[in-house]
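Lab notebook: predicted structure, single chain.

Context: the supervisor wants predicted structures on file for every construct in the current expression panel, including those that have not yet been purified. This is the next one on the list. No modifications to the sequence; it matches the entry in the shared construct table.
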Amino acid sequence: MRENLVKRRLAAGEAAIGSWLSFSDALSAQAMASAGWDWLLVDMEHGPIPLGDAAAIVTALHGAGVVPFVRPAWNESSQIQPALDLGCSGIIVPVVNDAADARKVVQDARFPPLGERSRGGIRTPLSFRTDAMTYFERANEEIVVLTQVETTTAVRNIDEILAVEGIDGVFVGPNDLAASIGKRWPDVWEHDDGYMAMVKNVADASRSAGKVAGFLARDAAMAKRVVELGYRFVGVSGDGNFVMGAAKRTLDDTRAALG
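Prediction complete. Output recorded below exactly as produced.
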């Protein structure tokens, strides 16, 4: 069965670096994968990426040797189970503010006895290069399940969220976390003591619980800082930002060169 290399790296205490996919196109995802990321996340919450396109993207990422993650649109069975049935190696679930929300994730994301995920489908054993029963027996071990921390409520309840069996860790959504205290992102980064205290608290709590803390950084400098704080599952920007940023820089440079 295909091993989850990102889960192995995290278990060894190493950082795993990835990025966001918002474009609904497998060729674009494959182009992103060619950069050599450890993981790439298919964003079905804000992308939005239809299920059929997401399936093609997950397949392309497996083929490129990049570990595919998916963010389902919401914390409910109708979103989580189809996302996992795409054959991804991990999920990041939004809208988790307390232990009850986290237990709901486990119920949908883990096979019995941990949860109540339904087994079936063709794509998952194909994606993991195994048979259906082996996938059922090992999926709970191989698939990374992270819940998002996007509100002050989630930060306040971080210890109880991390204590839920079947949750591998948490992932900070920095923009929404800033919005939850009425602040602008990224203005709060390294400039708002209350915000930075929450960011540090999530990392410290995850370390104490023996679980993973993740964060979506804007750039390499921010990624370096969050790793210093204790985050190990680190996203850096995304395909949309890369395309628009490079296009704008090239256009500006060309206009400047032409006078």
